[in-house]
Amino acid sequence: MHVEPLEKLPRSVREFLSHYSMIVLSILTALALEQVALRIEHRHEGQRAKEEIEQEITSNQQLALASLRATRENAQAWEAVLKRTLAQRKDGSGTNESRMAALHEAGGLFRDAMPSLKTTAWDSAISDHSVNYLGHDDLTRYSQLYAFQRSFSQALWDTLRDSAVRDVSQLSLALLLEKAEPEQTIATLNSRMRTIEIMVSQLRQLEQALREARQRGEGQAGAAAEPAARGASH
Predict the structure, then answer these.
(1) Percent of the chain with pLDDT over 70
(2) If you average pLDDT over every residue of the chain, what do you get?
(3) Residue 165's pLDDT band (boundaries 50, 70, 90)?
(4) pLDDT of residue 110
(5) Residue 232: its pLDDT value, please?
(6) What single string gives the DSSP state of each residue in 30-43?
(7) How far is Cα 185 from Cα 145, in angstroms, rounded to an integer?
(8) Which of 218, 59, 49 is nearest to 128 (CA)?
(9) What span, in angstroms and rounded, lies between the C-alpha atoms of 22 and 34?
(10) What is the DSSP string of the chain?
(11) CA distance 145 to 58
(12) Which of 26, 175, 186, 220 gives a 20 to 30 Å CA spacing to 197?
């Protein structure tokens, strides 16, 4: 802000107060305009961050849904192997060769569909402080959702790591020895089946949380667009 110096000294108190008032008014006006500009900039930053986070939530929900579908398909394949092996054990038709074949088939089914959940938009909003310009409800919702994502990813990874070490060890041992005992074969297949069921349950909860968050965001966007549409029609 630039203030022009007086060309001559004021000749009276009234003239001095007049010049002084003009200077104060100019400063206050400049400060007010600066605050308005900052608020507009912050509003735009908050809106940009919100749009990017909502897009990331939608993407994560689609990834979780794809992982859930793939895991359910994998569960069906494991269940088929388990049921066939269990039926053979009950009717006495099972042999070491049939159990070895079941374990070979099961070995090709170790494919865990872990969703690669993204946090880029949320991390960027924290890094550039644009989260400070989000609404309280949005900030709370996003914070809770991303915290849930982190806890889910850690819990699922721990489950897969612990079960994989146990199940792969049992399966590979039978294949190395070329001897598959009936009870141990069924126990190995059943253990893996229970792990996959846990994965399905966790993925279903994750997908539901992301879907509800996405729908809530879409609902807020629709509600915000209605007043603007009504205003444009008048």
Answers:
(1) 83
(2) 83
(3) confident
(4) 80
(5) 52
(6) HHHHHHHHHHHHHH
(7) 40
(8) 49
(9) 18
(10) ---PPPSS--SSHHHHHHHHHHHHHHHHHHHHHHHHHHHHHHHHHHHHHHHHHHHHHHHHHHHHHHHHHHHHHHHHHHHHHHHHHHHHHHHT---HHHHHHHHHHHHTT----------HHHHHHHHTTGGGGS-HHHHHHHHHHHHHHHHHHHHHHHHHHHHHHHHHHHHHHHHHHT---HHHHHHHHHHHHHHHHHHHHHHHHHHHHHHHHHHHHHHHHHHHHHHHHHHHH-
(11) 12
(12) 175
Tokens of 119: 């946090």
- Neighbouring C-alpha atoms within 13 Å toward the C-beta of 186: 12
Q: What is the pLDDT of residues 29-65, one digit of tens each?
A: 777 777 766 677 668 888 999 999 999 999 999 999 9
Report residue 4's pLDDT band, with 50, 70 and 90 as the boundaries: low
User: What type of residue is 227?
Assistant: P
Please give the Cα distance from 48 to 40 (Å, whole number).
12
Residue type, 92: G
Give me 71's structure tokens: 């895991």
Q: How far apart are CA 44 and CA 125, in angstroms?
A: 13
